[in-house]
Amino acid sequence: MLYHWYELGHAAVKPARAAADSYRLLLNNPFNPLTHTTVGRHAAAALEVFERTTRRYDKPGFGISSCMIGGNETAVTEEVVWQHPFCRLVHFKRDLPAARRESDPRLLLVAPMSGHFATLLRGTVETFLPDHEVYITDWQDAKDIPLALGSFDLDDYIQVMRDMFRHFQGDVHVFAVCQPAVPTLAAIALMEADNDPSVPRSMILAGGPIDTRVNPTVVNTLAERRGTEWFRRNVVTSVPWPNPGFGRMVYPGFLQLSGFMTMNLDRHLKAHRDLFQHLVRGDGDGAEKHREFYDEYLAVMDLTAEFFLQTVDTVFVRHLMPQGLMTHHGRRVDLGQIKRVALMTVEGEKDDITGTGQCRAAHDLCTGIPSDNKIHFECPRVGHYGIFNGARFRSEIAPRIAAFARTYDARTASGVIMPPLDRKTAAARANGYTHELESAAFSFSAANDEAPASSAVSRAQEATPVGAAAAARACIGLAGLAGLACFSVWHATSNLLFQGLPHATTEQQHDATPHGG
Q: Is the separation of the CB atoms in 101 and 94 below 8 Å?
C-alpha cells in the first residue's frame, strides 16, 4: 500500500500544482502590471518553487548532440544497438568517417541500476566522446515493464552483461560505475571459465562494493545489521495501477530519493530558498542551474524487488563474492578464472558510500590476472560521485582510464591520445561549475569533492550511488521520512511568499542606505 499512498498524494496535490503553474505564468507575463512589483515577483517565485517541488519528474534525455574533436564541433546521435526488456544498449555515434571512428577504442559504460537513470552519467559520456566510441547501459524503469515480460534478478543482470559482451565480440573496454562492478566481475569470470572469446579487453571498476567487509561505511553497517528480510518487509511494495508494470514487486525509486534528501534536508531546503531568491532578483542563470540539477536528481526509477533483495543479500549481508561462494544459477563464480582481461580499479579518498579498499579487493580476488596487468588509483580529495564525474574526474581519473584502455587495445597501444588536463581546463569542460549541493546530494556527509576556486555551481551529472547500497539508505527512506522531506520543502515554499516579502523589503532598504567610506 505504500506505493498507492504515494500515488494518492501526487493525485491529491495535482489540482493545486496546476493552479500554481497557471498563476505563475500569469504573474510572469510582462504585460501584467503586478509582474514588476515586489509582491508579484515574490508570488511568482513562490508559485514556481511549489510547482517544482510537487511535480512528477520524467526520465530525462542525454541531450548530447555534439562534441569537440580536434577543435571542430562534431555531431553526435544516439542509437540503440542492443535491447533487452530491462536494458537498452545506447551508442553515441559520432559523425566521423568509419575509419576514424574505428581507430578509437570502444568503451562500454555500465551505469548503476540504483534508482536514478543512466543520464546521471552524461558528464562521463561527454568526457570520453572525443577519443572513444562510447556505449552505455540504459536500464529501464521496472514500473514500466509489464509482468508478462518476466522477472529480473541479479542472475539475470549477470546474464545480460554476458550477452552484451558477446555483442561486441570481445572488442570493448568496460567501465563499471559502482554497483555494476560485482555483476561485471561475475560475468567476466563465467566467460573466462567457458573460454569464451568475447571477454572484454579490459575492465575498469570505479567505487564498486566488491568486499564490503573492508573499511565498512554506514551503508554497509546498516544493511548488515538489518538483514535482507527487514528490507523485504519494509521497502518492497507493488506497482499500482495504471502503470504498465502494475502488480510487479519493486523497490520504489522515491524511497531511495527521500532517504538521500532526508540525510541532507537542510541543504535541499537552502537550495530551494536560493531558487526563490534567484527568481525574485531575476537571476536567470542561477535559477536555470538549479532547474538543471533537480530535473535530473528528482527523476527516479524503480528496481525489481528480486534484483534489489538478491543484491543486498549477496553483496552486503553475506559477502559471497569475496568468500568465493557467489553463484550464478547454481554455478560457482570463480574470480581466479579471469586471466585475459586487464584490471583497473578506482577509488575516492573521501568516498563515504563505498569505503576505500572495497573496490581494490578485486586485485586480491582475481589471482589469475598477471600483476603487470593490474593497476589501482585512489584519487585524493574526492568522494563517491567524484570518481566518475566532475573536474577531478576529468583532470586526474579519465586520462588514466584512457591510457589504461589504450595499453590493452591493439589499435591504440602505441600511445595515448587523451591528454591529461589541468584542473582549470577540466572545470571548464565540466561547464565550469562544481557545487557542494551536488556532492552532498549523493553523500551522507558534507560535500566531499572540492571545487576549483574559479568554479561556481555544478552540473547535475553527479554519479549515481551504489544501487545495492541504496538498500541501507532505505532504512531512512521510508514513507514517513518521504513525507517529512516533501512536507518540509512545501512548508518552506509556502513560507517564502510571506517571510520573503519583509526580508526582501529589508534588503532593498539596506541597499538604498548610503554607506560611509
A: yes
